[in-house]
Q: What sequence folds into this?
């Protein structure tokens, strides 16, 4: 199936296995772009190489962490309302509260199961018209 009309999801994670797994779960329903660092994601977003409908962002990454990436994405005027969900192995209530305060669309813990990930992505995208 071609990607015409599919919503676009940007996956940002420095763990190749998490990128591959998430892409596998979502690629039938969404157009997926995978990047392995916040710097790479910001470069693509700033250059309008990919206009996502949703970003799934890991928190713990080498280099720029997810919190920094989130703030930098929010600073791009055209992306300030774009839904960003944290996809992380940090299953900590303080981190979840921080994500909520920042305005994250969701906080999905890894390892994730396919049904939950697909359901959460669908819910987030159905809220954003």
A:
């Amino acid at each position: 199936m071609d990607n015409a009309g599919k919503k676009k999801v940007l996956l940002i994670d420095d763990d190749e296995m998490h990128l591959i797994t998430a892409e596998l779960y979502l690629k039938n329903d969404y157009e997926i772009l995978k990047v392995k660092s916040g710097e790479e994601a910001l470069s693509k977003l700033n250059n309008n190489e990919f206009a996502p409908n949703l970003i799934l962002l890991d928190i713990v990454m080498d280099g720029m962490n997810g919190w920094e990436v989130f703030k930098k994405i929010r600073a791009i005027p055209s992306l300030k309302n774009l839904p960003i969900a944290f996809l992380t192995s940090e299953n900590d209530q303080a981190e979840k509260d921080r994500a909520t305060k920042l305005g994250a669309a969701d906080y999905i813990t890894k390892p994730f199961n396919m049904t939950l990930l697909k359901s959460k992505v669908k819910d987030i995208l159905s809220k954003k018209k």
